[in-house]
Amino acid sequence: MVQERLARRRYGSEVGQWSGWASWSACSRSCGGGVRTQTRLCLEKVAKDNGTDSGDQPPSRAETGRRRLRPIQCVGSDKRFHMCNEEDCPPEAGDFRAEQCASFNEKPYKDRLYRWRPHYSTKRPCSLTCGPENASFYVTLRRRVIDGTRCSPDGGTDRADHVCAAGHCKHIGCDGVVGSPRVRDACGVCGGDNSTCHLVSGIFTEPHLREGYQLVLQIPAGACSIRIEEVVPTRNYLALRAGNKEFIVNGAWNIDNSGQYQGAGATFMYRRQTDTQGETLAATGPITEPVDIFLLYRQMNRGIKYEYVIKRNASLSSVLPRLPNDLQSLPPAPPPALPALPQLPARPSVVPRPTGHRNAVPAPGVARPPHTAPRLPATPAGAGQRRGGVLA
Q1: pLDDT of 11-26, one tens digit each?
Q2: Which H or E element spans position 18?
Q3: Which domains are present in the chain?
């Protein structure tokens, strides 16, 4: 009502009313996330004048003519959008924007044929801007890309949840509505406020292990906001295995490059170590099955931090990570030659420690890490007490 009164001040009496919504259009894509559109029409209000009934007297022909000269204005949008066909396309499908550029390969441009490739414009992300192969210019071949085209390559880190619709880059709400502001909270609840979230975190500090794949922990299904990282760079590698016992990252003694990897219903970002930063694995989640985190051990472990968020559950065992004492690690195997890394400074001298002590010796200037067990809220009444990473 407030919007309508403001519109009347701006447009006078020529404020119309909306028709009902038409049927949804066909999906703009067969896979990979298309957009369906629904429209409505702005109609002239009947027997209304300045918000009051005009009585039984019909408008004169002159009044009708004056009304028709002025466009009718309605409050609100005449279009709404919804995501559809969001399942992944087969690998051979290729990039959707690149396909749109390639459709102009057989159409002459300034009397010449070109093989076009996509060019992403930050100012106009939803125009079809393409550049020819082996040339340094680019042109806008169409004012709008097809609805459902991502605003930036592979979604992009800043616009992974944005898509083009009616020529504009719009946010995809977690409710599937294009243009919706709704987002998931830390534990994956659409529109949530983190009130149902439970943070689980800890540090794996066992310094000396057998060479090869050694289990760090198992993260339960449903976990979100997952992050695994080395405290200090080493010559070790993180590895990720799905619940079906197939490796997602760094399996079978093969070291993968930094990048995105799909598994357990989520996308994991893996970054290899550098001179200043250790290995990291991260995923937004939620994951659809448990995942195992391994350390491909080559030298002393200096600490591996882990954290994830999961919905609160009455069953404490479904929230806590499963640690190596709960699970069976892979059998040892002789390691093949692994990629050479930059020479690291000599490791500090090791302080003698009692037998069975699990904490790593801290590096100079670095505080001693906490105990291996994660920081958790008070155990619910009736639940078992945690001893050494397992439930009693």
Answers
A1: 555 678 889 999 999 9
A2: strand 17-18
A3: 2-84 (2.20.100.10), 94-178 (3.40.1620), 197-336+357-377 (2.60.120.830)
